[in-house]
Amino acid sequence: MNIIFPKDFIQETLINRIRDIVFRHPYLSFTLIAIGIEFLGKCMLSECKNWNIKPNKAFKKGIELLKQADIRYSTIDLKDQLRNGFVHTLSPKSKIKLAEARSGSTHFEQVEGRTVLVIEILYRDFVKACHTVLKTNFSKDDKMNKSFTVVK
User: Is 114 domain-assigned?
Assistant: First the structure.
C-alpha cells in the first residue's frame, strides 16, 4: 500500500499522466486540466484546513496560478466556458473553441467570436501552475503535508 501526498499526486497524476493523455486523447485532456485547475487552487488555499473547499473559491485560486503563466487567461471565463461545460455536457460552451497545435490554430486567437485554446499550450501553462504549487513551502500542519490518498 502506497500513501500518496498531494505534491506526489500533482507530479504523478496532474503532470505525468495528463501529459500522456494530452498527446493520445487531446479532447479528454481539456476535461482533466479544467478539473486540475480547481485542485491546484484547493492546494494553495492554506487557510482551508481540509479538502472540502467550495469549487468557485478553489477554481478562482487555480486561475490565479494559470494567469502567472499567461495573463490572457483572465480574458476568458474558464470556469464557466471550460470546466462547467465539460462537467455537465463533456463539451465547451459557446465562447471557446478547442484545438490541437497540429490544426494550425494559435492559442487565444479569435475565430468566429470564440477564443481558441490549444491543448499543448494550455497543458504547458497548467504544468507551470503545477510547479508553482510544488515549489511552495506549506506549513507543517497544512493539508499539503498530510496523506492525500492511498493506492494499493
Answer: no
Residue 135 resides in a domain: yes
DSSP 10: I
* Confidence (pTM): 0.94
As for how many domains the chain has, the answer is 1
- The full DSSP string for 50-113 is SS---HHHHHHHHHHHHHHH-GGGGGS-HIIIIIIHHHHHSS--TTEEEE-GGGT--TT-EETT
In a domain, 72, yes or no: yes
Residues 105, 111: contact at Cβ < 8 Å?
Answer: yes
- Rounded to whole angstroms, how far apart are CA atoms 139 and 142? 5
**pLDDT 10s digits, 81-110:** 999 888 788 888 889 999 999 999 999 999
Q: Compute CA distances 12 → 7, 16, 62, 80, 116, whole Å.
A: 9, 5, 18, 27, 28
Task: Report how far apart, in Å, the C-alpha atoms of 123 and of each of 36, 48, 51, 62, 110 are.
Answer: 11, 27, 24, 14, 19
Whole domain around residue 28: which residue ranges?
2-90+119-151
Structure-block grid coordinates of residue 63: 486561475
Element (H, E) at 125: helix 119-135
